[in-house]
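FIELD: query
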Amino acid sequence: MFRLPEAWVWDFWTVDDGERYHLFFLYASRALRDPHARHHRASVGHAVSTDLVHWERVTDALVRSDPPAFDDLATWTGSVVRHPDGRWFMFYTGASLNDAGANVQSIGYAVSTDLHVWDKAPGPVLSADARWYETYADGHWHDEAFRDPWVLADPDGNGWHMLITARANHGATVDGDGDGEVVDRSDAVDRGVVGHAWSADLETWELREPLTEPGQGFGQLEVLQPFVVDGRQVLLFNCLVGDMPEAARAEGATGGVWIADAEGPLGPYDIAGAQVIDDPSLYVGKFVTDRATGETRFLAFVHDRDRAFVGEITDPYAVSWDGDHLVLEPLRH
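FIELD: result
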């Protein structure tokens, strides 16, 4: 388990350099006392491991920039990929407050040759575009949700794709009587979508329309990760019950870590049919391949126990399928 006595640890992402696993994580001082205050104080820490169990903390990766900047409030969740020229690119969320005091999120990146020293590129490189995505000015959400970039190589070798936690600029629509006229039928909460961008070189990005439609039962799909588990393509995402539509809450939905079946890493995804992973104390799950065995492992951070925020990262779990149900088994060490 990765725990810091002086700080809460929550969202994280990993990368394997071939010899060691690197854990990049959000953290903020427990001296804040209020766990909710951590979001406005988040920095990106760094730890390394050879077994996904024993972690050595090393120098932090990123901190917020001096204002004015797109990341002058905090640095939030991201992902790391390696460019063909050997450089490592860390894509991350920059948080800043607008004139109304609302949190506006956008996406930037930093570059490293060794995964330890990171140089930020001028940013942001991507922000919410009102052609497809909800902005704070729309007035339906508590912030401008545009974050958690997950970058992956195109399956056919055509550049790079980014999956983004975002919200659609409209609700779900339906043609109720078959006359070809559609009407908006959705709760304003029910606008969570998988945002999408593409790049040829990891440096310049083209924002595209979402890969999913609103009205699938989620206000936001946080910290996305496509992954193949035992030959089965899924999309992992996260959503707390408070960020789900009222109808879902009334039916007894529980929030947490979710997995949806997918036809490929870029979809289509069965978001409406997603299943929550059993342990409700866990949040922001991640699949990681165990280099020694080739098997899939699962890590998450412990969100709460007995109604209190915890803020630590679990040891890895073994994962397997029991029919359509994903089973987590603690590993013995």
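FIELD: remark
The chain has one helix and 23 strands.
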